[in-house]
Structure formats: structure tokens, C-alpha cells
Amino acid sequence: MKHSKLAAIVVAVAFLTLALVSVIPAAGPKDVVYPGKTLGDVVFKHAFHSTEKKLSCKDCHPGIFKMKANGSGMTMEAMNKGEFCAKCHDGTKAFGVLPQENCAKCHAAKCEPTPAPQ
Ligand code: HEC
Ligand code: HEC
Ligand code: HEC
Hints:
The model is unreliable at about 20-25 (pLDDT under 50). This protein has helices at about 1-25, 45-50, 55-60, 75-80, 105, and strands at about 30-35, 40-45. The chain has a domain at about 25-105: Cytochrome C3 (Alpha-Beta Complex), CATH 3.90.10. It has about 120 residues and is mainly α. The chain has a two-stranded antiparallel ribbon with strand order 1-2. Helices cover about 40% and strands about 5% of the residues. The chain is built from 5 helices and 2 strands, in the order H-E-E-H-H-H-H. The structure holds heme C (3 copies).
């Protein structure tokens, strides 16, 4: 009697652990969106960096970024000095943040309002 109760608890704990473990990686690789104010939005694609570029979580977490959207205090100013995204986006490991022609590689183009016909 006691033993079967213990076995049931062990099985329940094992199932809970499995369920949690299978939920954690799914939460990681979703996109993180940074709404643009002067330029267009930036979409950081976890899947592209992890799956396609084969970077490991440790290449970015916790050294460069906290595991929390908008949790790292990232600014473009700091990136222009080689921090955050620019640890890789330096023009060598990946396209750099400084050249004007690269802004649109991260920032979606913001549409200018169509001028009213004269
Ligand atoms: C190329 C860099 C990079 C890699 C590799 C990477 N991440 Fe991230 N991750 C980020 C950035 C950037 C953020 C957002 C941080 C911020 O805005 O301050 C983030 C945020 C997160 C978040 C929080 C998401 C949210 O909506 O709050 C989780 C969870 C996470 N990462 C998990 C993972 C896991 C798990 C892996 C490995 C499978 C991984 N990351 C690999 C860069 C990376
Ligand atoms: C650990 C290194 C690393 C970090 C940190 C990193 N990237 Fe990348 N990223 C890469 C590499 C490598 C590529 C592919 C090489 C290239 O395109 O020059 C890439 C490519 C990209 C691309 C092009 C995707 C495509 O579909 O072609 C975008 C957009 C991008 N990164 C955005 C970001 C943003 C935004 C951040 C910061 C939140 C960031 N990356 C941080 C390594 C990194
Ligand atoms: C590697 C990707 C990447 C590149 C390339 C890049 N940026 Fe950014 N930029 C970001 C991210 C991510 C943020 C959001 C950080 C934050 O939360 O403020 C940002 C934020 C900004 C902001 C503040 C938000 C806003 O819209 O006002 C400005 C301004 C900006 N970038 C200008 C530029 C300019 C100009 C260039 C080209 C010379 C450029 N960026 C290139 C990733 C990039």
C-alpha cells in the first residue's frame, strides 16, 4: 500500500519534470520585437541565430543578454560602442551596426506617409 503510493508520487514527479523541461526550450526561441520610434521595428529572431547560425544559448546568455525581453538595458548608443548585438555585429563576425546601408538589415523600413495629391 505504502509502496504503491510512493511509486505513484515518483511517476507524477517524473511526468511534471518532463513537462517542464519540454516547455522551457519552446519559450526561448520565439522572436523578440523592439518597437522603433525614429526607425522601423527590430525583430530579433532566436530561431535564425540558434538553428541556422548554430549559436548556442551560452554564446548570448547570460554574458551579453538577460533571458528577458527588454531586460538588458540595450540602447543603439551602446551598440555603436560595440556592446550587445554589436558584440557580433561588428563587421567581422556578422554585418556591422555602423554603416548606413546596414540599418535596414535590422530595422524594418518605416513607410513615409504618401503625400496628398496637389
Ligand atoms: C544571438 C544571441 C542569442 C542566442 C544564441 C540566444 N538568445 Fe535568447 N535572447 C537574446 C536576446 C537579444 C534576447 C532579448 C534580451 C533583451 O531584450 O534584453 C533574448 C531573450 C530570451 C528569452 C526571454 C524572451 C522573452 O520574451 O522575455 C529567453 C527565454 C531566451 N532568450 C532563451 C534562449 C535560449 C533557451 C537559447 C538557446 C536555445 C537562446 N535564448 C539563445 C539573444 C539570444
Ligand atoms: C553571438 C553573436 C550574435 C549576436 C550577439 C547577435 N547576432 Fe545577429 N547574427 C549573427 C550572425 C553570425 C549572423 C549571420 C551573419 C551575417 O548575416 O552577417 C546574424 C544575422 C542577423 C540578422 C540577419 C538575419 C537574416 O535573416 O539574414 C539580423 C536581422 C540580426 N542578426 C539581428 C540581430 C540583433 C537585433 C541582435 C541583438 C539583439 C543580434 N543579431 C545579435 C550573430 C549574432
Ligand atoms: C544588429 C542590428 C541593428 C543594426 C544593424 C542597427 N540597429 Fe538600431 N537598434 C537595434 C535594436 C535591437 C534596437 C532596440 C534597442 C532599444 O530597445 O532601444 C535599436 C534601436 C535603435 C534606435 C532607438 C529606437 C528608435 O527607433 O528611435 C535608433 C535611433 C537606431 N536603432 C538607429 C540605428 C541606425 C541609424 C542604424 C544604422 C546606422 C542602426 N540603428 C542599425 C538593432 C540594430
